Amino acid sequence: MKRKYTVTNVLMGRDTFGVTVYPNIDYAFVVALVVILDEINRDRMGDDDI
């Protein structure tokens, strides 16, 4: 998983991730993992909006 930083994403507060998913892998599970890892990372950095 790689986070992509662009000027637009930084200014608008959006995150973009690139993920390689191989055949026979559950895409919904991968998306859930990315969301969970992002939330954990935001909590550690103090960037959580909630």
From TrEMBL:
Transmembrane segments: 20-37
Keywords, comma-separated and alphabetical: Membrane, Transmembrane, Transmembrane helix
Domain of life of the native organism: Eukaryota
Record has Acetylation as a keyword: no
Database matches in Pfam families: LOR (PF04525)
Protein family according to the UniProt entry: Belongs to the LOR family.
Name of the protein this chain belongs to: Protein LURP-one-related 15
Source organism phylogeny: Eukaryota, Viridiplantae, Streptophyta, Embryophyta, Tracheophyta
